[in-house]
Structure formats: C-alpha cells, structure tokens
Design a protein that fits this description.
203 residues; mainly beta; six-stranded mixed β-sheet; four-stranded mixed β-sheet; disordered N terminus
C-alpha cells in the first residue's frame, strides 16, 4: 500500500488502496505534505523534512520553537500499547547550553539515560556532564564495571605516556577524601594526594 494524507500540493494523487483521489493523496513528484500519514509503505526520492521546509539531510526533523527546554524526538517501539518504547532526539537545553544536545531515552518515559552535549561531552546518568565522559549513579550500586574473561586478558588501561606533566593518572576518592592517587611520574599515594615517594602512605 501507499501512504495517504490530507492536504499537500501535487498533480498526482494516490490513495492507500491505489485509486486516485484529489482529496486524499501522497505527493509523488515533490511538493508539500500536510496532515497525518497512514498506510504501510512509501518511497521518497529526495530529502524529507518534518517541521522544516528545506531539509538538508535525507531525514531532517526540527522543532521550530525558539524557547528553551524544547525537544525534537523520534519514538521507536514494538508494543501495541506503546508501553515499551525508546526515544532519541535533541534537547535545546533547560535554560542554557549546559545540557543542550543529543539524548537517548531507553524507556521512552522522559529520562535522558545518555546525553551527548554540543561540545562533545558524554554523560550517562547525568544530562550536563562537565568532562569528556561522566557516569553518575544515584543508588547504592556499582557505577560501572569492566569485564574480560578471555585467556591472558587485560583490564583497564590509562595512558598518559604522551604527557610531560605530573598530574594524576588515576585518582580514587573515598568518603574521607583521601583515597588513592597514581601520579604521572609513577608515584603512588594512599590516603594523600601529593606523594613524596614511589609509594607514600598516610594514616
């Protein structure tokens, strides 16, 4: 079948059952569609715009509102009830660029599980990451985990070999603030942040 819609501009109109009709049609040779699309299949030979009259990509979706806290979203699901679905889209930002960017909502309920800001920062569990990659856990559970069960497996690697500084290569904070630090010069501190030896332990 074909998609059919009310309104639009074209000299060729076709309904979902294949018959011609000048009141319910799909523009076959270009023009503008309006109303709701219904049917099972359609083919477009050029770019499609939703909310934009001059699409610059094969599919260009835009929320024309100029207000903060606006979204342009796509909803994807497989259930008839639509209870289980996911959404992807772009959020303009609540009130600034601090949380403006692309997001994935795994449950389709309005929660932005993954956020990629316009500056490239990526957040999981936070909509406004302040570093390149930031994961935030708000429940009493692990924040992340790395597993490799292969023979002769490797774990986690932090590479600062191209840096000439002596800042932290790895730092672990605890409730008391001390934790552990591995400096870029090889010094390791436990319970302090400025080790004075290869291994410096403080009570």
């Amino acid at each position: 079948g074909f998609f059919a819609t009310q309104g639009g501009t074209s000299d060729e109109f076709v309904k979902g059952d294949g018959t011609l009709d000048s009141t319910a049609y799909l523009a076959l040779t270009g023009g503008t569609l309006s109303g709701a699309l219904t049917g099972t299949a359609a083919t477009f030979s050029s770019s499609v715009g939703i909310g934009v009259t001059s699409p610059t990509e094969l599919l260009h979706i835009k929320n024309p509102s100029n207000s903060w806290n606006q979204y342009a979203k796509i909803r994807i699901g497989t259930e008839t009830s639509d209870n289980y679905a996911s959404e992807i889209g772009f959020h303009r930002g609540t009130s600034s660029d601090a949380d403006r960017g692309f997001f994935i909502d795994g449950g389709g309920t309005g929660t932005q599980h993954l956020k990629v800001l316009t500056n490239g920062f990526v957040g999981i569990g936070t909509v406004s990451p302040t570093i390149k990659f930031q994961a935030v856990q708000t429940t009493a559970d692990w924040t992340g985990g790395f597993k490799n069960y292969a023979t002769d497996a490797y774990g986690l690697r932090v590479d600062l070999s191209g840096s000439s500084g002596v800042n932290a290569a790895l730092q672990v904070y605890t409730a008391t603030g001390g934790g552990m630090i591995v400096k870029n010069n090889g010094s390791v501190g436990i319970g302090l942040t400025a080790p004075l030896a290869n291994l410096d332990i403080s009570n």
